[in-house]
Amino acid sequence: MFSYLCVALLFVAACSAQVSTDKPDLRNAICKQRNGYYKVDSSCDSYVECTEFVAEEMICPDGLHFNPYAQWPAYPCGYPMDVPCLGRGSVQPAQPTADCPHQYGYFRSPAASDERCGEYRLCVAGKAFDQSCPAGLAFNYDTGRCDWPDLVPSCNADKFLGFTCPAAPVDADGKPLDIVINYKYQGDCFYFFSCESGRARLLSCDAGLAFDPALGRCVDADLVNCSGAARVLV
């Protein structure tokens, strides 16, 4: 669903690309193929599109970068985390709105904090859409993806999850055992915490299963007393 949304939003962005007037000196000098895209030196978001050997200067919508590896006729603009500029050049001036620093992109939500790490903001054509990661995941602004909270620098994983992994069992030499141990998620039979090397990850049982704290794994839900439990929605 997440991937489908991204594709749909980029399609909207395609309709917003700005096109300049044709320049005769571009028509034959750039188009080495009948149809294709060509990068513009010193620019991360400008490109030339050739259609039937006719070149047009184009620029991606504000907040997106040109992908020099895009194959015509696929849309050649993408989010910066997918198409890093890598020193290729500059970008157009930002076109901010009251709620978005750029027309397109993923940004920090006003509701986000080191304890509410799953909140983020998606901007489309300058309009803000506040979103939340799936339960137990935090939004990583470096990658533009939902990720394990212990891998997100801006997130306090213990506070966000409301759980800290107990100390791992030790071997005969007193060294922590490299094993995975699962723990009950309070108030819900279908989620559980999985701890490995002190890192807690909130996981869920498959449909029809529930977590048995005595066994430390998911079993048939009919075998677990889940009275009063409710699924996590955050």
Q: How many strands, what sense, and barrel or not for the largest sheet?
A: 4 strands, antiparallel
Number of alpha- plus pi-helical segments = 3
Q: Which topology of the largest domain does CATH recognise?
A: Antimicrobial Protein, Tachycitin, Chain A
Which regions contain 5 or more consecutive residues with pLDDT less than 50? Answer: 1-5, 14-24
Assigned CATH architecture of the largest domain: Beta Complex
At the first level of CATH, the class of the largest domain is Mainly Beta
Query: What share of the residues lie within helices?
Result: under 10%
Describe this structure as you would to a colleague.
The protein has 234 residues and is mainly β. It starts with a helix and ends in a 14-residue tail after the last strand. A hairpin with a 4-residue loop joins strand 12 (138-140) and strand 13. A four-stranded antiparallel β-sheet has the order 1-5-4-2, with no helix packed on it. It has a three-stranded antiparallel β-sheet with strand order 9-10-11, with helices on one face. A three-stranded antiparallel β-sheet has the order 14-15-16. It has helices at residues 2-14, 24-27, 157-161, and strands spanning 18-19, 36-39, 42-43, 46-51, 54-59, 65-66, 77-78, 89-90, 105-107, 119-124, 127-132, 138-140, 145-147, 180-184, 191-196, 199-204, 209-212, 217-220. The protein is elongated, with a radius of gyration of 24 Å. Helices cover 9% and strands 31% of the residues.
